[in-house]
Automatic annotation (TrEMBL):
PANTHER family from the UniProt entry: HISTIDINE AMMONIA-LYASE
Pfam families: Lyase_aromatic (PF00221)
The entry's keywords: Histidine metabolism, Lyase
Main location: cytoplasm
Official protein name in the record: Histidine ammonia-lyase
Localization (cell): Cytoplasm
Annotated organism of origin: Nocardioides dubius
Similarity annotation: Belongs to the PAL/histidase family.
């Protein structure tokens, strides 16, 4: 039975967004949300009947806001707004992003500050519950006045126009999908078109999903780093809590504590722990893993704080203030807060991938891998081992460095200079999604190299955590030494275990939850 998320006047949580966006949870509106929506609608209808023009209710939009719109033209005004703003282009945006932005728009409607009718909000919830996903395109949002084009494509589906994908992924006209689900298209009333398209929901959905993914990937990075330290005969002494306390960054302390636990009871580490060990200092990519991973963790924590504030926000323009009985223009739709942290996360993601690639490269160089064969090959010269797997890592890391160039420092004027400074937050979100995927692939290749190296260290025994990973990858025929074989499918099998969470689950079952 599918989970159902109740959207009320309180903020949607990260877990709820992931459940709806990624896992297909159904959605319903709470009684508190419906009451709040009714109160705001009463304000809008009173202002719509007034002689004094009110922006978004009885006027045009943007640079056309000076025109007063007669009552008999206001339905057409809202319909025209949605149709004209659904102007995206390029490839389809992923379903999980579209479902995420739809949920976040519904959450804002539920605050009672937008002025839509309950029926319109219920229809948006109905699309989510029936897994009807509007087609949204890659290009079209400047991240100011919100994610206008992406949201307009979603609003268009409420009118029974445009194209959608149904629960089975079939692309079809929105009217057909709504009819099949027993849903009636809506005819927008005053203010509703604007309320449906004016928010930071697209960039915020991408930020929230990225935070969820990065929290898992940074724990995985501690796993791959520990396995690299272990297989390269590194020391675990540098991860001691007393050393981390000298520089009290919380992310660093958590990462180092993970490394200590991951390396505990390792026969490989114990084999060179005695007084004869000449490994006084490991290379930075091994020794400084907690510092880099920890800085990334603290960056994610900052981004989460921003995301949670944004999740608790009511983003619209104009916004309805029911207690005061008025509608006011504002600038809360500007995506700068979200755009900045999207870019910040792209920087951290690139650096975590960079240090992982450096750890992997050390495995392959006979001058630095402490007794392992060149490129971890079975018969070096005849076999190339993991030589080109590192090339793949390097190409991804290079791409991540380009993706780390911030989008939010850019701006381009629009709407006849009315919208003369924009956030480019949507673009920051698009590149972060690509970066997060790249990091997962870089860590997968490090995991593959570390697994093969630990097998080559036999009969020395790995730590219980590493042994659990080796056993898991054995089940998918990955990581064993031997003659060269088609490597791409093996990398993909490891990547599937990473993205599914299977690697972290195996570690958790062996040693408990990581920080």
């Amino acid at each position: 039975m599918r989970e159902t998320i109740t959207v009320g006047t309180a903020a949607v949580s990260v877990a709820e967004l992931v459940a709806v966006a990624r896992d297909g949870a159904a959605v319903e509106l709470g009684d508190d949300a419906l009451a709040a929506i009714e109160r705001a609608r009463e304000v809008v209808e009173r202002l719509a009947d007034a002689d004094t023009p009110a922006y978004g209710i009885s006027t045009g939009f943007g640079a056309l806001a000076t025109r007063h719109i007669a009552p008999e033209m206001r339905t057409q005004l809202q319909r025209s707004l949605v149709r004209s703003h659904a102007a995206g282009s390029g490839p389809e945006v992923e379903d999980e992003v579209v479902r995420g932005l739809m949920l976040l728009r519904l959450s804002t409607l539920a605050t009672g500050h937008t002025g839509v009718r309950p029926a319109t909000a219920r229809l948006l919830a109905g699309l989510l519950s029936n897994r009807i996903t509007p087609i949204v395109h890659e290009y079209g949002s400047l991240g100011c006045s919100g994610d206008l084009a992406p949201l307009a494509h979603c609003a268009l589906a409420l009118l029974g126009e445009g194209e959608v994908r149904d629960a089975d992924g079939r692309r079809q006209p929105a009217a057909e999908a709504l009819a099949a689900a027993g849903l009636e298209p809506v005819e927008l009333a005053a203010k509703e078109g604007l309320a449906l398209i004016n928010g930071t929901d697209g960039m915020l959905a991408m930020l929230t999903l990225a935070i969820h993914d990065l929290q898992a990937l940074l724990r995985l990075a501690d796993v791959t780093a520990a396995m690299s330290v272990e297989a390269q005969l590194g020391t675990d002494r540098v991860f001691a809590a007393e050393l981390q306390a000298l520089r009290p960054h919380p992310g660093q302390a958590a990462s180092a504590a993970n490394l200590v636990r991951l390396l505990a009871d390792s026969g490989v580490v114990a084999s060179h722990r005695g007084p004869d060990c000449n490994r006084v200092q490991d290379a930075y990519s091994l020794r400084c893993s907690p510092q880099v991973h920890g800085a990334a963790r603290d960056t994610v924590a900052h981004a989460l704080a921003v995301a949670e504030r944004e999740l608790a926000s009511a983003i619209d323009n104009p916004v309805v203030l029911p207690e005061a009985g008025r509608v006011e223009s504002n600038g809360n739709f500007h995506g700068a807060p979200v755009g900045y942290v999207l870019d910040f996360l792209a920087i951290a993601t690139a650096d975590v991938a960079s240090i992982a690639e450096r750890r992997t490269d050390r495995f392959l160089d006979v001058a630095r891998n402490h007794g392992l064969p060149p490129f971890l090959a079975d018969d070096p010269g005849v076999d190339s081992g993991l030589m080109i797997a590192q090339y793949t890592q390097a190409s991804i890391v290079s791409e991540l460095k380009r993706l780390a160039v911030p989008a939010s420092v850019d701006s381009i004027p629009s709407s006849a200079m009315q919208e003369d400074h924009v956030s480019m937050g949507w673009s920051a979100g698009r590149k972060l999604r690509r970066a997060v995927d790249g990091l997962s692939r870089v860590l997968s290749i490090e995991l593959l190299a570390a697994t093969r190296a630990l097998h080559l260290r036999a009969p020395l025994t790995p730590s219980p955590a590493s042994a659990a990973v080796l056993a898991l990858l054995d089940t998918v025929d990955a990581g064993r030494p031997g003659r060269d074989r088609h490597l791409a499918p093996e990398i993909d099998r490891v990547h599937q275990q990473v993205r599914s969470g299977a690697v972290l689950r195996a570690v958790t079952e062996a040693i408990g939850e990581l920080s």
